[in-house]
Amino acid sequence: MGTPPKNTFTVERDRMLALKSELMKRLKKLERERTSQFGLIPLRDSDSSSGSTSDQLVFISSSDDDNENIEDSGASFFDSIRHTESDGVEKFPSPMSKARTIHDKVDAKSIIVPRRKNKVGLTIRIVLTLLMGYFDVITDFKVAYVYYYNRQFVVAYYIAGFAVFTLLIQAAVTIQQHKQKGWAECYGRALIALLGGAPIMEGAAVWIGKEDPTLLFPPTVMFAGIKGIEVAFEAVPGSIVQCLGLLSARRNEVHPIQIVGLCSSIFCGAFVMTDGNFGFICGKHRASPNDPYYQWVPNTPALSTRLMCKFGMFLFFVCYFSQFVYTMSIFVDAFGFCLAGQALAAELALLCMYKAYKGELCGVSILSHPTPLTNYVLPFLLKMGYYVLVCACPMLITAAPCELGPEVFAAIIVWRLSTNGVVSYVAISSENYHCDHMHNMSSQQGLIFNAVTLSGALIGLRLFFKNCCKKFNVSLFWKPKSGKEHIESAWRDPEVWGSNMNPVKTKDDDYWEWAILLHPTYLPLEELTSWLCYRLVKKYADRTTPRPSWMSGYEEIVFIKRILTIYNWKGVNEEEAQRVDDALETLFTSKSPKDLEWAWSGVGGGGAAKFRFFEKVKPRKDWLWKRRKVGSSVWESFMT
């Protein structure tokens, strides 16, 4: 029997299937061309609400490169796809026949890893950083054993104690990073951190390149933070103690491992801080391309320029770190630990007084909600940690206005470089100086050493600034600017700045990121009220425009609670409270009282069916936080 003739429907179906197959082949070819040209990876994401499948385009900017891969072509394409807010949806150009839209949420599991050439550079960086860090820790324990064997028990206990204390801090930070994953995994990772495995874990997370929304910090920030903790609490104090031991030892008592240990602490600390600065700032630049403080990374394809920029920073860190370690060891030997600690505490007190005068002493820029912990403990600990970093190996993120600020950052560096020679000269000349053995240095030799390290630090700064991005304004590193002024500039700029490590898409997302991330003391209340009561109400009151993810579902409750917390902290009058109350009622009347019951718990309790902001959110009654007129004194500035 022959093949039965096909009807018209079958013929048309076959023709359409063949046409679809041909179109899909052309589509894949165009996607491959776009991928190779701009670093774009097509993703597939199913919309659970509609059951449809839509295409996405994700800009690949890996967390691995030192932004030696911030290429002109990729950057220009990223600039060309700025959002349009006319219809509330960001539109991206595409070589395909239809426009593609990036959804509000992208599944972290669907993010494709970076290109191979970026992976190679990332692998080299992570391996070198880990090797340098572990070599430093191992040599410190060996040095501690040598001192213990020579019956210098105090020095041995100090060196080993700093290393153990660093492991404890890394374990505590690891618990905070992974606490949303469950207690079993959280404490399992903390145990690994206690055994010295925190850098390996976070380095592996950076290498994989996936963003996990359950983590407190992105992997790049966490990795840089872990290595920064290692430098601040192990390399810096350990180097001071080792240098003190070398200067006070006789020649026949010096073991080669002691010299290797001191040099490894200095060079490893400088290498780690150089890599951490580049990695952290590159990640911030990808997330905040319009933030002027994160644009110094050279974007030229010339490898020599990037290497010279890194070498300049590395040379500055080596010289700056060496000078600080030498000066502190001489000062401690001459006047003791107590006086040295009091001098550093006095400098930290002056720093806190200046931040209090600026009204930003309680400002915290990491996922902060006003609580007794964040009001009194966390700001001081952060500023103390930033102060230690700037004193030993400056982390450029501390120059951001929401951290120490550029003027404080520059003032500490200039103060250190200009006074280290004087301090060492006075300490060596004092009657209390005890290093009277073969390794004693005269005051003239101390001045020569400080002059050499100062010259090396200035040469390193010159190389660094010369090879920075040509468009970067170098004066931002020392030009005074407060965190409030910085955030006001970001809010008033029509361009998207971005504030977290994940790039945002629209200006509303940008506002939301600032409101969630920063302490309320930084947020401009007028701009926040205008955004909430006019912009959001105008766009989303009719409930026909698709809402962003942070205005729906569980995030809606978080949004309400955060807004109420901000206004409660800032303090508003009855008219402003009523305006905010009306805006919240207009935007979120669909939620039942049961859903909103816990949303009021952190700001006064309640759970009534109607939004009554002014009635439910009571002002602080504590006399310490009594509202007073701003600006009449330092104390009043601190209180407000």
UniProtKB/TrEMBL annotation:
Keywords assigned by UniProt, alphabetized: Membrane, Transmembrane, Transmembrane helix
Domain of life: Eukaryota
Keyword Membrane: yes
Keyword set includes Transmembrane helix: yes
TM stretches of this protein: 126-149, 155-175, 187-208, 259-281, 376-397, 409-428, 448-465
Protein name: Uncharacterized protein
Source organism of this protein record: Triparma laevis f. inornata
